[in-house]
Amino acid sequence: MDQPVMELFLTSASTWESEEPVAQEAPSPSSLAEPVSSPGGFPFPVVGTLGEMDPQGVPLVYFQDAPGGNPVPARSVVPLDSGAIGREVVLLFEQGDPGRPLVMGVLRTPRPEPVRTEIDGEKLVLTAEREIVLRCGEASITLTRAGKVLIQGAFVQTKSSGLNRIKGAAVQIN
Length: 174
Hints:
The chain is mostly beta strands. Among the domains are: 46-106, CATH 2.40.50.230; 116-152, no CATH class. Helix content is 2%, strand content 36%. The strands form 4 sheets. A 6-stranded mixed beta sheet has the order 5-4-3-7-8-6, with no helix packed on it. It has a 3-stranded antiparallel beta sheet with strand order 11-12-13, with no helix packed on it. Strands 1-2 form a two-stranded antiparallel ribbon. The termini are far apart.
């Protein structure tokens, strides 16, 4: 016949004067599964947004129910830089306190493929999937995937010391 077994573990006595081990009952597996209450209102991870970095490099995060609806200074367990600004972050809160967020990580999201550049000292090649726009004030040059080149400005001038040729299936002036 099986007898129930009480497991015991030894801990140091709670006083410095005694080094005698003290027997205590081991916690039951069911008690380990019980949720630990926290004094604050955020015991679970929250998804927020990295708003910016302050001048000292402290991340400021936005999240639902943030105190005052303002960004909250946070500490981070992962490296953060300006490239993460605007990205979603996973937050935990020290002792459940919404005023003490910890950035646990940055959520990975599919991002558009960045513009590729090649610079070899003699030429610059910019490559993009949809279009490239070069803009300064009211002037712009746009290159599209469909092969269009759009030049816009308050004043457009072409100048050549040699032949200035305009070719096309149709050429329209004014």
